[in-house]
Amino acid sequence: MNSKADLGIIFDTDVDRSAIVDASGKIINRNRLIALMSAITLEEHPGTTIVTDSVTSEGLGKFIESLGGIHHRFKRGYKNVINESVRLNEEHIHSALAIETSGHGAMKENYFLDDGAYTITKILVKMAQLSKKGQSIADLISSLNEPVESKEYRIKILSDDFQDYGLKVIESLQSFTEKHSNFQTAANNFEGVRLFSTDADLDGWFLVRLSLHDPILPINIESNIKGGEEKLKQLLAKQLKQFTKLDLTPLT
């Protein structure tokens, strides 16, 4: 803001990930960057499928759908997201964009290279077009509903056979909805267990998944109301107490 720049651009060291800061100083990354790239892509490819990783918000899915697109939430890992988009195209389901919350983005038109510079180029072109109309890129995502609270926890698995133990934890959560009628299992979930509640004092979701290589259960929790994340965390912690080989310290 102090420099009065129109845009700030951020790359990682090998330029396969990117994010931006708009003229107001607002950071556009994670769900916001996906929403922005989805809006640009859907103008050029109406009705296309946008493949993202598993931790994206419910509001992002509704945003993509409001633009006429299809949100396909897949596994974490940029290679997983890209390969899934490639697979969909091979099955004649048009998917023009694969993008992860980390900032990795790849487009069909660019041969699915995870190229942060290409992502930024698409944004710069769109920014120039919008400026002629007196608009900004922030206008493209003004209808994106973002969670009030969002946190990630990493729970250590203290078992030598951590993969089997982690899978048992995830399997136990499959029956969570039987004990908690106010929860539902998210449809088309391809990684771990994602459960959500629309109760007025929760209004959010949690995702529990197993790290591919480390003895860790990453847990993502989001809520659309203040204090909802804490309540969701407490419910989940109570459920997981039966597993003595989990270090639940982050949840307490």
Structural class: alpha+beta
Radius of gyration: 19 Å
Which sequence of SSEs, written as H and E, runs from N to C? Answer: EEEHEHEHEEHHEHHEEEEHE
Provide the low-confidence segments as ranges: none
What is the helix tally? 8
Shape: globular
Work out the strand percent.
15-25%
Main-sheet strand order equals: 9-10-11-12-8-13
Q: Please provide the count of β strands.
A: 13
**N-C termini distance:** 39 Å
The amount of helix comes to 25-40%
Mean residue pLDDT = 96
Largest sheet: 6 strands, antiparallel
Describe this structure in words.
This protein is an alpha+beta fold and 252 residues long. 34% of the residues lie in helices and 23% in strands. The chain is built from eight helices and 13 strands.
Concise description?
The protein contains eight helices and 13 strands.
Index terms:
four-stranded mixed beta sheet, alpha+beta, six-stranded antiparallel beta sheet, 252 residues, 13 strands, 34% helix
Helices and strands in order, then pairings?
Elements: E1 7-11, E2 18-22, E3 27-28, H1 30-44, E4 49-52, H2 58-66, E5 70-73, H3 78-90, E6 97-99, E7 105-107, H4 116-131, H5 137-140, E8 149-157, H6 162-173, H7 176-179, E9 183-185, E10 193-197, E11 204-208, E12 216-223, H8 228-240, E13 246-247
Parallel strand pairs: 4-5, 4-6
Antiparallel strand pairs: 1-2, 2-3, 6-7, 8-12, 8-13, 9-10, 10-11, 11-12
